[in-house]
Input
Amino acid sequence: MKILILGGGGREHALAWAINQNPKCSELIAAPGNAGIAEIAECVALEIEDGAAVSAFALENAVDFVIIGPEAPLVVGVADALRSAGILCFGPGAKAAELEASKSFTKEICVICDIPTAKSAFFTDLPAARDHVQNQGAPIVIKADGLAAGKGVTVATDEAEALAALDSIFSSHGAAVLIEEFMEGEEASFFVLSDGKSALPIGTAQDHKRAHDGDQGPNTGGMGAYSPAPIMTKQVIKRAMDKIINPTLAEMARRGTPFQGVLFAGLMIKGGQPRLVEYNVRFGDPEIQAIAMRLGGQILDLLLASAEGTLDQAQVNWADDHALSIIMAAKGYPATYEKGEVIDGLKMRSPQVKVFHAGTARAGEDIISDGGRVLAITARGETLQDARDRAYARLKHLNWPGGFARTDIGWRAL
Ligand code: AMP
Ligand code: GLY
Output
């Protein structure tokens, strides 16, 4: 089977690496891919947010299955275009992708389905939003509506910070804001495949969103993750399925916009009770690096079952193992940083460890940095401690003076 993966980050490298291990995969193409993906796939330049261009490419090249990695192509309807052209594809259509693209849409679903989440109010008017903050007091959470790559959220510990966040959103992001109750607890990422009818949990993970050790510094796309998430006990998973995931999937189907793909629920858990922080409609990065390390080649069978509508017959074969992924980012990330620096030490192979590329490019014989998050050093082990030791041992052999990594990934769970 000829498979096309859209995207070029660490998530797509992890998916490509896992899928390439499945004998069903005879040919792998990635658009745009990166220097790591290029070792196992043909990388092509393609306008991945243009549904007509992606469909034409898939038809011309006799692609059997398209896997859409990032949210941007999903939100603009690339999955819809592919399905209309009769091409098998993994990922929700634009209407179902609203679960990530529009925070107000998700809140509406939460209200209709009585899903446990933060109380919230939606404003399109700055004075009314400021009044609301002054009435509620801090801590309080301010969110710009729409896709903001994790940068549109301020968890304000005092009122002045909340008001400043409102001023900034109304001056730069357009004029729609969600103001939420601050939820206490521990966060986890929960991934559930759906084919529009059935749902199948495909893994749990915990992510470290802050740039620096001790969960200090600015929010990022994620600086490291480990799977499974110890806080996601069987009971918490069952509650999350019963109260959050299944009602959402049922409501999407009822509306005639069934969700097909992976639903990524960001949960806040306190006292064994999960509440929804947000939905994403794609795999988490770097959560999938850890999960892919544990699932290996069966990921392809699971994504195919989701796309083909046969998820009720699928199952995940879990090993009793753990995996952990450490992001190496360019110094300065998530603000300004340099690109184009040579990274050495990538060739070394160690058992149960994989260095996924997130933002790299090739320059002659060299691999150079080409993004904010650049590498995801990922390892598996019988215990979380084993996986962590292996990943940090591998990190030491990388030579890239312009890069940095947190030294405490997994600390909460050890
Ligand atoms: P989001 O983009 O909605 O995932 O928000 C980014 C991060 O902000 C989340 O991962 C949480 O750490 C935090 N956050 C968002 N909403 C809330 C909330 N209502 N209460 C506490 N923390 C939150
Ligand atoms: N690591 C969180 C995300 O992918 O959104």
